Amino acid sequence: MDFNVIFSLAGIVEMPMLAKIKRNFLLHCVVAKNISRNPKFWLVFFTDMILLTCALYISYSLRFEGADLRVDWLSQFFTILPVILLVKAPVFYFFGLYRGMWRYTSTDDLVRIIKATFTAVVLGVVVLLYINRFEGLSRSVFILDTVFTFLFISGHRVSIRFLYDEGNGSHRFFSLPSVHKTKRLLLIGVGDSAEKILRELNSNRNLPYLPVGLVDIDPGKIGMKIHGVPVVGIVGDLQDHIERVSAEELLIAAASVPVNKMKHIVEICQTTKIPFKVIPAFGELLDGKVSLKSIRDISYKDLLGRAEVVLEQEKVGGYLANKIVLITGAGGSIGSELCRQILRFSPKQLILFDSSEENLYAIQMELIHECKLKNVIPVLGKVQDIKLLKLIFAQYKPAVVFHAAAYKHVPLIEENPWQAVQNNIFATQLLMEASILYQVERFVLVSTDKAVRPTNVMGASKRFTELLMQAYDWNNWDGCLYGEWEKVFAGAEVPVLLENKIQRHSTRIMAVRFGNVIGSSGSVMPLFKRQIENGGPVTVTHPEVTRYFMLVEEASQLILQAGSMGEGGEIFILKMGEPIKISNMARDLIKLAGKEPDTEIEIQYTQLRAGEKLYEELITVGEGIIDTNHEKILVLRGNHYVRCSHLFGYLEKFADDSGNYCGQTIKKTLHHVIPEYTPDVV
User: Less Cβ crowding at N or C end of the chain, within 10 Å?
Assistant: First the structure.
C-alpha cells in the first residue's frame, strides 16, 4: 500500500500539523515492517503470548485453589483470554517492548514493562466492563495477573540477556575458560571508580584482567565485597596481599586523592616490583566516565594531586553558548584544550587561528572527526597580518576571542627579541583593535607568571601586552588606534566605530595569568622524559630552582571561568598551589620510569640560562590582589593605567628596532616602559 498516495489524496500534506502526523505514521509503518521481517521478533512475541496465557491461568488457579477449579471457571478463562491477549499485544508493542535489543535489557526496559503491564490491565478491565459490566469476574484474578505478567515478561527479557552474556563468557556459571591470557588484577581503592571497573570486567570476560581483590586505606572496609570481589586488606600491607592472591598487576582505582596520599600509594607500588597503572582523575574525562580504556601508566600529573575544577556552568555558558568564538594559537597546548572545553557549552562556530599548519590540521581533524563538530573554520596565518584580521572579523564576526598565541620559550626569545615584539606585542595589539572595531563582546588574553617582575624578554613582552590590555579596555580607552586601519578599509565598508571616531566601545578586555603548564610545548617535562628514555643524564639548571605547575585541563577551564567574571581591565590570577622544585620533579619522573635517581639515572646541574629566574612569582607586591567568588581565581584591579597614546610611542620604537633586528635596543625600550625589568644590556 502506498501511504504517500493516500495522504496526498486526502490533502493532509498541505497541513503542517497533519503532515507531522503523516511522518510519524509512516515512520511507525517502516519500523513495524522491519520488525515483522525479523524472525527473532516472532519468537519473542509468541513466547510472550504463551507467558501471558500462563500468567492468567495461574492467576485463576491460585484464586480458586487449583483442585477446586470447576469447568465453568475454566470456560471463563478461555472466554476472556482472547480479550486479554488482544489488549496486551498492541499495548506492549506501543510501549516499545519489541523494539529493543534484548541482549542489552536494562532497568529502563523493566520500567517500560511496568508501565505497559498496568496500562494493559486497565484497558483490559475497561473492555470487559464495556462487554459485560465485569459481571461474574473476580477482581483478585486481575491483580494476580498483573503481578505474574510483570514477572514473566521481565524474566523473559532478563533471561535473554543472561543467555547472550553467557555465550560471550561474561558470567562464570557454565562458561568455558577464556582462551585469552588473563592477568590477576589487584585494585587499590574502594569507591565509584573501582565499582565501574569491576562492572566492566564482569560484563566483558574477553578483557585480559581477572580481579582477585581490593585494598584500601580504610581498614574498616576489610571483608566487604564489590561485585563479588573482596576487600582483602589495607594498602600498607600491599606486598602481603599480592602474594596471598597471586596478583600480577596493580590498578590504582582512585579517581581523585590528595597529593600526599597518591605519592604514598605510588611509593608502595614501586616497592612491589610488579606493574601498576592508574585511572585518570574525573577532570581529565570530559564525559565523566571511567572505563578500562582510561587505564594508563602513572604519570607526574597524578602526583600533583589537583582537585577537580568546578566551573560555574551557567556563567560560562552564558557568554559562550550559541556564540561565534575565535581562538588564536588554536593548535597549541592551551589553545587546543580551550577548543575541547568550549565544546561543552555548544558554541555556534569555532574559528581556529594558527600559524602552524601541522598543529592547525591536527586540532581541526580532532574536532571534526572525534568531537563531531561541523562548524569549524580553520585560518592558517599570522595574527599580525592586519588584512587577514580584517577579512576574518568582517566575514565571521566573532563574539568572543581567546588570544592564546604567543612565543614562550625563554632562552629562544632571549636570543631573538624581535620575534617577541612581532608575535607577542604587535599581534596582541592588532587583535585587540580588530576586536574593538568589530564590537567583540569579550576578549581574553592568556598571559604568564613571567610577566611579574620580568627578568627576560618573553616575560617583559607579555607584561607589555597586559599594559595594552588595560589601555584598550572600554573603561580606559582614549579613542586611539595604532594600526593603520584607514588604509586597510580604503574603498571598503568601514566599521561604524572607525567611521564616526567614537571615543567609547563596549568590548570587555581582560587577561589571565598563570605559570607552567605540564605537557605544553614550553614545559620541561618532555625534555626530562626523552633524557630518561635515553638513559640520562637528566639536566636541571639549578638545585633550588622552583616553578609553579598546572594541568592543561584545569588551566583551560579556569581561563573560561575568568572570561565569564571580567568586567574589563582585570588581570585574573589562577591559584597554582605550592611551587615545585624542578630537581624533585626530575627525581619523581625517574622513579615513575622504574629507575633509581643518581644511581641508574644521573641528575646533572648546569646553570640558569639567560633570562631565567630561580623562583617564579604570580603577583607583585602592591598590585592590589583580591579574592573572587571562585576559590581558585584571584583578580588584580589596578588604579593606574597607561594610556594608549603613551604606549604608541613605544610601539613606534619597537617597529623600527624589530624591523632592523636590534635586540639590545628592544631590551632597553622594554626597560623604559617596564622599569622592574632589568635586562643584561642596561
Answer: N
The residue whose grid cell reads 633524557 is 531
Residue type, 437: L
Among 304, 330, 358, identify where a domain stops.
Answer: 304
Cβ atoms of 74 and 57 within 8 Å: the answer is: no
Question: Of all residues in the chain, what percent carry a pLDDT higher than 70?
Answer: 74
Residue 71 shares a structural domain with residue 110: yes
Is the domain of 100 the same as that of 217?
no
Nearest CA to 574 out of 535, 592, 595, 548 is that of 548
Check whether residue 238 and residue 372 sit in a common domain. no
Report the half-sphere exposure of 555 (CA within 13 A, side-chain side). 25
* Encoded amino acid at 93, one letter: Y
Question: How far is CA 459 from each of CA 350, 514, 527, rounded to the nearest angstrom?
Answer: 29, 12, 22
Enter the C-alpha cell of residue 368. Answer: 571534526
| Domain endpoint, select from 107, 140, 167 | 167
User: Which residues 6+ apart lie within 8 Å of 477 measured at CB?
Assistant: 436, 471, 503, 504, 505, 644
Looking at the fold, whether 263 and 331 belong to one and the same domain comes out as no
The answer to whether 190 and 224 have CB atoms below 8 angstroms apart is yes
Nearest CA among 385, 319, 307 for reference residue 353: 385
pLDDT at 425 over 90: yes
Q: Which amino acid is at 550?
A: M
- Give rounded-to-5 percent helix, strand, coil for the chain: 50, 15, 35
Cis peptide leading into 537, omega within 30 of 0?
yes
Q: Please list the alpha-helical segments (H only) found in 506-643.
A: 525-533, 552-565, 582-592
For 383, half-sphere exposure in the C-beta direction (CA atoms, 13 angstrom radius) is 32
Report phi then psi at 389, rounded to 5.
-60, -45
Q: What cell was used for 533?
A: 628514555
Q: How many domains does the chain have?
A: 3
Question: What is the Cα–Cα distance from 209 to 250, expressed in whole angstroms?
Answer: 11
Supply φ then ψ for residue 281, to 5 degrees.
-65, 150
153 pLDDT tier (thresholds 50, 70, 90) = confident
The pLDDT assigned to 165 comes to 55
Of 355, 479, 508, whose CA–CA distance to 427 is shortest? 355
329 and 297 inside one domain: no
HSE toward the beta carbon, residue 519, CA cutoff 13 A: 15
Same domain, 435 and 355: yes
Q: Is residue 193 part of a domain?
A: yes
> pLDDT tens, 9-44?
444 444 454 554 544 444 445 444 545 556 666 777
CATH number at residue 200: 3.40.50.720
Tally of CB atoms within 10 A around 357: 11
Residue 41, Cβ neighbours under 10 Å: how many? 16
Per DSSP, the three-state class of 660 is: coil
Q: Which residues contact 273 (CB under 8 A, 6 or more apart)?
A: none
Record the cell numbers describing residue 118, joined without a space: 498496568
**CB neighbour list of residue 627: distance below 8 Å, 6 or more residues apart:** 634, 635
Q: Which backbone phi and psi does 609 adopt, to 5 degrees?
A: -80, 170
Which H helix or E strand runs over 36?
Answer: helix 16-36
Q: Which domain holds residue 297?
A: 183-304
If one compares 441 and 34, the residue with the highest pLDDT of the two is 441
- Classify residue 180 as exposed, middle or buried by CB count within 10 Å of its CB (0-12, 13-18, 19+): exposed
DSSP 233: E
Q: For residue 588, is it within any domain?
A: no
Q: How far apart are CA 146 and CA 84, in angstroms?
A: 11
Burial category of 504 from C-beta neighbours within 10 Å (exposed 0-12, middle 13-18, buried 19 and up): exposed
